[in-house]
Structure formats: structure tokens, C-alpha cells
Amino acid sequence: MTEIILASGSKQRQAILATLGIPFQIQPADIDEQVVPFKDQYDKAQAIALAKAQAVVARCTTASIVIAADTFCYLQGRILEKPKSLREAEEMLRFQSGQELEVLTGYAFLDTSNARQMLGCEVVQMRMRELSEAEIKYYVATEPVLTWSAAFSPAYDTGMALIAHINGNFTAFSHGLPLDKVRTFLQQTTLF
């Protein structure tokens, strides 16, 4: 029987995939994202997702469908990864305050039983509200900002409250996984 594997330790991705009501395993890829070659920010999101999926496929011993994704924000020529310190998280939030930015979610779904795959990058346009210094300090002090690209997550009320508006794939933005694309891929199998 074919297994579905989520190549991510992300609680947000696990939560959104669970809404489909199908069993899946969690196997984080644990790759060094810094060594994945890319041409631009759009290619980077997809390339990292594909590298994650391929790393998990290499460990598969049974027929599997591997679901991988990578999400980060892009603003004024800068890719905003996970901050390395609380101070950097505050700086990132100040940088994004009141700004229009892109949230990129690359995805790679691989089916080992027939070499079928679906690759792509969802681009969401987002505007962050103007944040006060007090809001930034409170958010950084109370949320696990070091675990999120650009130091925030819209999957939770506190992160959603930072957002003025979005335009694009909602689950790619909110949970880092375009659920509509996952569903389309799984519908092409006997599993869904």
C-alpha cells in the first residue's frame, strides 16, 4: 500500500494536511538548504521543496507519495528566512511593517510508484499592518519567532492580526502548503 509522507516537521503543514482526513507519516527532510542552487527567489522556493522531497524519497523503502514545501518572504530584494536571534526577529518585523511583500511557497509532490510529480511556486502578495514598537516587542517576546520565516506565522491569531490584506493561495500563505494542489495530486491516485 502506498504511504503518504509529509517531508516537514512544521506543525502548520501537519495541521492543514490533516484536514484532508487521510493518514500520513511525518519525516522531516533535514537538508542543508544553504547548498541548494537556485536562479531567483521563485526558483529557490521550488528548488528547496524538491530537494526536501528527494531526500525523503531516497529513504523510502515502500511505494510512497512525498509532500514537501518551503516558504519564505521576499521584500525589497531580500529573502527573509528564519531569524537567528530575537533582535533579528524584531528588525525583520520593523522592516516589514506597513510594507507590501511576497510570500513564496515552493512545493514538490513525488509519487515513487510511477515517478509522477507536481512542482511549483505559489506567490502571495501580502501587506503587513503598520506595527507599533510595543506590538513588535510583545510579539517577539510571546511567540516562537525563531521558528518562522520572516519572524511571523499567519497560521495563528497573533500572526494573522499583523496582516492588513493578502492576495493569493490562502493555505500556501497561512500554513506553508497549498492544500488545493495537494488534493489535485492525490486525486490522481487510488488513495483519495
Structure description:
- With 192 residues, the protein is of the alpha/beta class.
- The chain has one domain: Maf protein (Alpha-Beta Complex), CATH 3.90.950.
- Helices cover 34% and strands 27% of the residues.
- It has helices spanning 11-18, 41-57, 86-96, 133-142, 157-160, 170-175, 179-187, and strands spanning 3-6, 25-26, 64-75, 78-80, 100-111, 116-128, 163-167.
- Strands 1, 2, 3, 4, 5, 6 and 7 form a seven-stranded mixed beta sheet that branches.
- α3 crosses α4.
- It is elongated, with a radius of gyration of 17 Å.
- The model has no long low-confidence stretch (mean pLDDT 93).
Q: Enter the CATH topology name.
A: Maf protein
CATH class: Alpha Beta
Please give the share of residues in helix.
25-40%
Number of domains: 1
Distance between the termini: 13 Å
Main sheet record: 7 strands, mixed
Low-confidence stretches: none
Q: How many beta strands in the DSSP annotation? A: 7
Helix and strand layout, with pairings?
Layout: E1 3-6, H1 11-18, E2 25-26, H2 41-57, E3 64-75, E4 78-80, H3 86-96, E5 100-111, E6 116-128, H4 133-142, H5 157-160, E7 163-167, H6 170-175, H7 179-187
Parallel strand pairs: 1-2, 1-3
Antiparallel strand pairs: 3-4, 3-5, 5-6, 6-7
What is this entry, summarized?
The protein has 192 residues and is of the alpha/beta class.
